Amino acid sequence: MTSLEQLITPWDLDETLGDLYVPPFIEEMAQQVIKQYNFNVSSMEVITTKADKGGLIWKINTNKGPKSLKILHRKPSRSLFSIGAQEYLVHEKKARIPAIVKTKSGSNIVEMGGKIWFVADWIEPLYPVSADIEGAKLLSNAIGEFHQLSKGYVPPKGAENASRLLRWPNAYKKVVRKISWFRNVANLYSELPTSKTILNTVDMFEEQAKKALTMLEQSSYQQMVTKGNKEWGLVHQDYGWSNGQMGPGGMWIIDLDGVAYDLPIRDLRKLISGSMDDLGRWDINWIVGMLEAYNEAHPITDELFEILLIDFSLPNLYYKNVKDMLFEPTIALNSELDSVVQRIVEIDKTKWPILEQLRKEWRGGKRK
Amino acid sequence: MKVLIVCTEKLPVPPVKGGAIQTFIAGAIPNLSKNHTITIIGRSDKTLPDKEIKDGVHYVRVPGGLLETYQEGVVNYLKNNTFDLIHIFNRPRLVLPIREVAPESRLILSMHNDMFKREKIEPEEAQKAIDQLDKIITISNYIGNEIVKLYPDAQPKIQTIYSGVDLERFVPTYSAKGKRIRASMRQKHKLESKKVILFAGRLSVNKGADTLLRSMVDLAKKHPNVALVLMGGKGFSDNRMTDYIAYIKAIADRLPIPVITTGFVHPDQIQDWFAAADIFVCPSQWEEPLARVHYEAMAAGLPIVTTARGGNPEIIEIGKNGFIVEQADNPQEFVTHLSKLLSSPSLCKEMGQYGRSYAEKNHNWNRVIDDISQVWSGIEYKIKNNVDISSTSKMNDEKEEQLLTKKAVAEKVSPLEKKHTRPKQKQPIKKITTSSIPWLNKEIIANKASNY
User: Do the record's keywords include Cell division (chain A) (predicted)?
Assistant: First the structure.
């Protein structure tokens, strides 16, 4: 077997090779992939690797300007969905998203090593927005625009229909279930210092998750999703302060690999609750500012707003941070997890009054 | 008849990568080629040719993976090839596209999972597909009942045909061959002195290994001598450590008993682990169609502890070949049943032997083959006599019975026999809907009534 016939699989499972290590056979493949394009590469630089999954991004300097060369770690049929979306947004909708560079034969992608490779424009310059409420508004508006433009996308032939639209109840159940795992593990490792903290908090957060699930089940969610994938459009799924940046002509959105059909406010929920986490407390002015900025580009209907509030009620922060204790509990339950959980409990206390206020004060896309 | 078997897009046939549907097809279909010309169309695989003839069966393999891609391959194939009967496996969504290119063929659908669920197929398409089918074979009453709940008029077309197990390959632990394998497996894995509890399946939330592991905490207090084997799927050392695998590893690490994860075991070798075990547990949490592993455990002469989920309880006679955990997520219920078995080797033995005889009687492949053969004969009869699709089962059974009493038997059977030089059957015509497990047939009727 020559190296070009090898399959790309995760290559640094014990995380000893370093972040920027690339196996030689993949380097060799990259050279073959580059040959299929109408440009000459003068230099290439590894930007980031997903060694545990089998993904990679290079920045390549070519005689036709800087480009990115990516290996998408997902299975090809899934990646084709995202590539199709990127092309749709750039070509049909003129969105500020890097354009895909076609191969000599006119294809969007090269398939090698069992993965999809593709080249896109490298947008320069790109700056992160300021870490304040104004930055947060810019990000919110940009993702609202993205959601608006993505409506109507139909994936190309051979692509999977990547959709999370119908999966919300299951995702909520998953959170409920996994929180009960935290309890089971903490009980089995009860002698470790943080176990007690987990056991002291797990009931409350489990209750929150169950309540959020009930609220979702009683909401108009089921009826809303019947509208269909294409009509709701795409959600970025990994949007935040690094995948939305200021550049030529306005805000640019990058790294679309994970896009899927979904209710649009999932991105907004993550963006807002992530910002509140950074802030260390829930802040009504930030949230209203972000909602208004988003609403300008993509109207938040009252029923969508209801789902947003429900999604806020899920103990996302607790779940996301405590989840890691499942891996190597003897290390996790001895570490700084204790202070992390304490902090989350404090932030959580500030969340509920704000949600209540939002419920009362927000109607028809604005604060009353 | 000229018959086309349509497999799913996921896994190849023969089951070189495992799979219940693939095992079912490989176990039953080739034997039917004595009386029928059979082609099996399935997904391509690196280890298998795109076209071959093996044991008289034609294999055609087209690209799989995505249903849409696969469908295109199947449809294209059918544009140039015609069949009397097309027997589709587990893909209601293939029915209409196939009907379009095979307007004259009779269509049968075999259902192994709940693929008629709303999120799997649009109700309108499902109803149209059902209308095109002569018969819907299901691998458990549970699957049939779920279809009827959504589409009541499917009922007369539905028939349960339970799957089979290779009784030569899965031998009882107490047989000479079983003892040999058992001794070598137990030595190899340092289990000589242990009571081995076996789990077989993916390590996933649905399959419930976590609940079983949690039950070991208390079970080990009473029975420190147990060992737990988790066979199949991803082991703890597998590349991609999911949250779930991390979770069950966290439990396993705290247990005072050995927990062995085997990782993927080639389908050819799984019988060895059954031979090495003392008790088989299926802790499934989801509404499972009916897991094959139950048949394999019975064939291996193991007592079974399973959960009251989906079709799994259908093949359990409580206290005879196994026990049923009513609350699937309650570890204590597992402790109760397992303690009972572990405390009484004679009970284990008795139940294992009963299970073996149950499997011999009800889940040998010949029974499965006979059942399918009868369904096909029913179709053949309908073709000969121009009986249309809709006048199926119930009405048809009555008609058939009338015909039988009017000495129509000879007319019905003999022309076919001549044509296909079919060996004389012991019972030329059984009622089509007869399953070889009479008490289960009664049960499906009762269940169905309660579903309305």
Answer: no
How confident is the model over B138-164, as pLDDT tens digits? 999 999 999 999 999 999 999 999 999
- Note whether B239 contacts A: Cβ–Cβ < 8 A: yes
Partners of B318 in the β-ladder: B322
Which residue in B65, B214, B243 is closest to A323 by CB distance?
B243
Contact between chains at A177 and B205 (C-beta distance less than 8 A): yes
**In B187-257, at which residue ranges do the beta strands (DSSP E only) sit?**
195-200, 226-231
Q: Whole-angstrom Cα distance, residue B184 to residue B334?
A: 29
Instruction: For residue range A315-338, list pLDDT tens digits in order.
Output: 999 999 999 999 999 998 887 899
> What's the farthest any 2 CA atoms get from each other in chain A?
68
Cβ within 8 Å of residue A281, ≥6 positions away: A346, A347, A350
User: What's the token pair of residue A221?
Assistant: 């969610």
What does the block give as tokens for B164?
A: 């089979």
CA atoms within 13 A on the CB side of A92: 14
Residues 378-417 of B with CB under 8 A from A: none
- Assess contact for B308 and B329: CB atoms under 8 A: no
CATH assignment of A3-121, given 3.40.50.1000, 3.30.200.20, 3.40.50.10680, 3.10.580.10?
A: 3.30.200.20
Residues carrying CATH 3.90.1200.10, chain A: 133-367
First and final C-alpha spacing in chain A: 68
Q: Is B149 on the interface with A (CB under 8 A)?
A: no
Residues 6+ apart with CB under 8 A from B367: B164, B436
Contact B71, B56 (CB under 8 A): no
Contact indicator for A71, A56 with CB cutoff of 8 Å: yes
Tokens of B197: 């509890």
